[in-house]
Amino acid sequence: MSANITPIEQIEDDLSFFDDWEDRYRYLIDLGKALPPMPETDKTDANIVHGCTSQVWLTVRSNPGQNTVDLLMDSDALIVRGLLALVLAAYANRSPVDIVEFDINALFERLDLLSHLSMTRGNGLRAMVQRVQILASEFTPH
Amino acid sequence: MDALTDIADESSVAALSKIRADFPLIAGNEQVYLDNAATTQKPQAVIDALSNYYARDNANVHRAAHKLAGRATESYENSRESLRRFINAESREQIIFTAGTTESINLVAQSWGQTNLQSGDEIIITLLEHHSNIVPWQLLAQRTGATLLACNVTPEGEIDLADYHAKLSTRTKLVSVGHVSNALGTINPVAEMISAAHDKGAVVLVDGAQSVGHMAVDVQALDADFYAFSGHKMFGPTGIGVLYGKLELLNAMPPWQGGGEMIETVTIEHTTFNSLPYKFEAGTPNIADAIGLGAAVQYIESIDRSMVQQYEDNLLRLATSAIAQLPGVRVIGTSAHKSGVLSFVVDGAHPGDIGTLLDQQDVAVRVGHHCAMPLMQHLELPGTVRASFSLYNNTDDLDRFVAALTKALSFL
Ligand SMILES: Cc1ncc(COP(=O)(O)O)c(C=O)c1O
How large is the ipTM? Predict the structure, then answer.
């Protein structure tokens, strides 16, 4: 699934190149547009992440035989989709243990997107990250 | 866009710019604040009343035998009198201080509702209501076996009065309706609805959260049985609001919370209750914020309300026609009777994206369902973008809003 995901290093590189908010947001929106949609059958109530102004869906499935998980995310809002694409890139090819331990706050801080991780914006990204970590931890060795 | 002088006459322009200067957060801020339906900013007079109270008059009210307590009590009770005048209630006993609209409605649902409703009775609300005017009635219906009915709204965002009249019957015990819709801005014909409800013997509560900051309210002229509102939406502090009720209703209602202040005598076996309004004000009240709200009333009384209302109407009209010209923008709520609120969607764009892009340009609006999920479900919308205006907004704010929205659209 990670074949068509832009690597996170590339995204960091690209974002660091922009110096005004407009370019950064246009880029984020493009990432959002490029994110493959989640199959409609996965957009169930059970897969909704609550705490978001927009709808956000998440599925975490184990990859049989591999030490990675298969993450799918989607939203009905474009900027949130862009942020989800970024989170997906950050988590791509990581083991469940890596995902649980990965410091996504630091990444968002480097990208100067920390305000998007805050609870107050209501985009629920923090709730989403927490949910990924909880679900991923179910696949970590006990 | 047109200058201020095109929507207000010469003498008003001076008054309006003085008003803007009265609000520190507005006067000293680059941000365009268009989230007034969520909460309004505070004039210096209200901020001063709060800090003066704590700096000079702080004491507990109604009890102690010292001068400080006397001053605090006097200010607190003067504020009640200001609020009586503000909504033209008959007497100060009818002004019950609460934490806000939500608590006022819950007070009525608990105290009046629990005593007066039973299985087979009906409560009528509308699809326009804020969750605060839905959930307390839902809970009450579950407790008493009464039925909750919601009147339809028209595509323009008005209450479907034919549906209202059809739903009204002798089974109707209570009608609870917003004076102005927080999601769409529609001014509802509450006087007409109240009189129709009274013909069936029903009691009517009006949720005035969105009206008090924009228009003069006369509870006697409306003949409202209960009127609920919040201080923070009319330039006052948060955490304070009012429940007005007709005397005979309030007198017959049992207390809903027990504690100090609301009692007359207490033995271990039995309590006799204090008279109105204290019967419903258990515990040490929110003295400072009640005094702050009194200052907000005095502030409102110091301005020319009809001029301001005319001005706000012009601002809303101007904003509506400006954004209606932008590609893909659809105004939600097109009633001829609106106040303060401009709700809209953009075809193919999520309201959240518009809100984020406006915020990047320092234009503060609200996006989402506006605590009116049943209305959004009815309109089949995921939510709207809501720009809401107040008396300190000006045409510069409008220009910046329209320019920021135009730019936002270019992103999507
Ligand atoms: C129409 C309406 N009713 C009730 C409320 C609830 O007011 P509060 O949260 O101040 O109790 C609001 C506030 O958003 C409102 O707009």
Answer: 0.88
